[in-house]
Amino acid sequence: MQKEEINRYLIEAKSHLVNELLPFWTSRMIDQKGGGYITHFDQYGKDTGEDEKSLIAQSRSLYTLSSAHRAGYGEGKLASLAGHGVDFMLHKMWDRKHGGFYWMMDRAGNVKIDQKILYGHSFAIYCLSEYTLATGDPRGLEYAEKTFDLIQKHCTDTRFGGYFEMFDRDWTLAGPGSKGGDRKTLDVHMHLMEAFTTLYECSGKEVHRRKLIEDIEILIHRMIHPEYKTGIPQFTADWRVAPQIKFDIVWGWDRYSGMGEKINPTDNTCYGHNAEFAWLLNHAIDILGMDHDHYLHLFASIFDHTIDHGIDTEFGGVFVEGPHSGGVYDKEKEFWQQAEVMIGLLDACLLFKNEKYWIAYKNVHHFVFRKVINRDAGEWYPLLTREGEPVWRHMGHSWKINYHTVRAMVQSVIRLKKLQDKQSFKL
Amino acid sequence: MQKEEINRYLIEAKSHLVNELLPFWTSRMIDQKGGGYITHFDQYGKDTGEDEKSLIAQSRSLYTLSSAHRAGYGEGKLASLAGHGVDFMLHKMWDRKHGGFYWMMDRAGNVKIDQKILYGHSFAIYCLSEYTLATGDPRGLEYAEKTFDLIQKHCTDTRFGGYFEMFDRDWTLAGPGSKGGDRKTLDVHMHLMEAFTTLYECSGKEVHRRKLIEDIEILIHRMIHPEYKTGIPQFTADWRVAPQIKFDIVWGWDRYSGMGEKINPTDNTCYGHNAEFAWLLNHAIDILGMDHDHYLHLFASIFDHTIDHGIDTEFGGVFVEGPHSGGVYDKEKEFWQQAEVMIGLLDACLLFKNEKYWIAYKNVHHFVFRKVINRDAGEWYPLLTREGEPVWRHMGHSWKINYHTVRAMVQSVIRLKKLQDKQSFKL
């Protein structure tokens, strides 16, 4: 029965992936005229015409197509669509003078914002490595390595460790404050872990392995709360907790007060990030061939905090954020947090074989399939009220694309199969 | 009278440089057969035939020739001899597969030790930048920048800041202990400051400036004693003071006990390094266009420690090393420490206009000119007893070359002229 129950979730996830998510994108994302991907769609899946191609949306789309191909979907079609996106990234978004990728282009491939933003470069490394792993085309790894080398040269803080994140086109470090040149964020250092994991998986090089391990050590020893193991969003260069402010260059719709600060700027943790950090770390440990046992206590702390404080047992789904010690500040529901918590909770089931994580997974799964997925289109609403009413309704944008949704289904299917395959598995 | 006194020292230094030091090297260093420089000479200036070309001796010789040319010596001849050394470094010592310079060659240009050692690469950056500044040949800066980029990629510790120092040929980090892969040294981080200063002087690039400033911050806030401002030789990766051990790859004849540790492995500071650090920092501040006032207290602490504990008022010259709080462990006299303290004390005279530094300078100057210089050859003995009797007598070796001696005279002449030019200058 347990096995049959898992099977129902597996079938639902796979069906959504194959019949809704992937077709939504493959049928409308290719820009034959301008190259690369069209990424702006309204709630009906209609192209909004917004004249933007962001590094985030292009690289995440390339990741989506490559990773789904590598996981066995699409019968080859996804690989060819991935190649279309690589061409645009390497021929249009790559800065031949200073190296690195521009932050924002128009659809025709002209530069709109030429700054070099580390957040975007972590996704460039991630998607280009995944593309070579998926297709064997060496161009992906070549440019992933070039990007890695540029980051090591320009972004590392050799004084305090870690990475600076915001630069001008020529990699001059940006100024302080809202320009972000004096901050270090959990978000970027977590996505570097994700990127370096796949880069190392692809290259097998010692330097990629070493910098991945160093980044993991930073995350564990600097960027999570010493007691609660919850993520802390922002730091000064010398690793003091910094008030969480809004940067001039944004990569999402995170909500701030009028002053550009969170209402609780120094005591704020995000459930989606915490679960994402845990499963990405678990994956990194796999790829590194290291011992999971050393990290079990950490994983238990993070997943317990997620289910104790982040799961809405009344209306279902995952809250946005709250204080480290527990409680919730923001009870709305963001699409990507549901996606990351689904993967994380399935990892928790596999690691700990404890029923409580399975119950929490089912909660989030149900909320996603009943409320978050826009059945008329096949993609997810980006933001909903606590009760599950859509607040924002667009399907695609520079900061809302297929990476979280498709990855959640690809990775959930892998994990649900593992759960199912364990004959002796009793939750 | 003060001015005339300074003039006597100036004339003596310049005469030694022009009539002894430079001719000693230019008349015998060019290897027409194997390329590059011959660097092994006995006390009579005779080639010992030792079949080694070390990265240290080749790069330091290139620095010597380039810097002396830039300072106005040699009537163009030194620039052409410098070009001869650049050819060997770029065509024979550069690893075309993995990048970077081999550690040790034979005279014919075959690799003897292929490891990548950061200490050597700091001198590569230093000499190649100085070569381009001196001659305008762009090859120097091109390879200095390539080396800088490799260091940023392979050597930075993104976890704790600073640089790892010992690598295999392919830049895999060396193991711990005597292999040195888990240590950070004052020596290397100080010479990186020296190298990045000249690289930035040559390139004017922001990234070179930024990494120079970060290295200076590490040196000031991590690597000198918080109370005495004296240099601490070795650290663990996470900046704990480490017992001073001998590494498998050596770049000098520093003396250790049978266990490969100093007799006082955790309370040991070197007068030559302290003064060298201070004047190199003073020079870096000049090149960066930063304010000296901020550092005056630091400089006073270092130079006062040097003259209070490092100067031998009985027999003259500079002791080797002692405890941070004062006193001396090793009363022998090493050639290079005399050289660096001479430059440092002249900086102290210019910064503080205090007679005590001038008295100390004269002490060291006299010791050098009466005891250390081997008048029969024109170069300096590498090691002497406290009283000034030579212990080692060779004039050149892989770890004893013209860099300290020629630089001391070039830099002393510049500083003695400045002292002399200050009409109103009263010590």
Q: Strand order of the main beta sheet of chain A, please?
A: 1-2-3
Task: Give the integer mean of the pLDDT values of chain A.
Answer: 96
What does the largest sheet of chain A look like? 3 strands, antiparallel
Work out the helix count of chain A: 12
Residue runs with pLDDT of under 50 for 5 or more positions of chain A: none
Judged by helices, strands and strand pairing, the structural class of chain A is mainly alpha
Of all chain pairs, the largest interface belongs to: A-B, 25 and 25 residues
Amino-to-carboxy terminus distance of chain A = 12 Å
Order of helices and strands of chain A: HEHHEEEHHEEHHEEHHEEHHEEEEH
Strand content of chain A: 5-15%
Give the helix level of chain A as a range of percent. 40-55%
Could you give a short description of this structure?
The structure is a homodimer of 427-residue chains. The first copy, chain A, is mainly alpha-helical.
Description of the structure:
The structure is a homodimer of 427-residue chains. With 427 residues, chain A is mainly α. Helix content of chain A is 51%, strand content 7%. The first copy, chain A, has twelve helices and 14 strands. Chain A has helices at 2-26, 55-70, 77-93, 118-135, 138-154, 186-203, 206-223, 271-288, 296-310, 335-352, 355-372, 403-421, and strands spanning 53-54, 104-105, 111-113, 116-117, 166-167, 183-185, 234-236, 269-270, 321-322, 333-334, 373-374, 379-380, 383-384, 390-392. In chain A, the strands form six sheets. A three-stranded antiparallel beta sheet of chain A has the order 1-2-3. Chain A has a three-stranded antiparallel beta sheet with strand order 10-13-14. In chain A, strand 13 (383-384) and strand 14 (390-392) form a beta hairpin. In chain A, helix 1 runs antiparallel to helix 12 and helix 5 (138-154) crosses helix 6 (186-203). The longest helix of chain A has 25 residues, at 2-26. The termini of chain A are close together. The mean pLDDT of chain A is 96. The interface between A and B is medium-sized, with 25 and 25 residues.
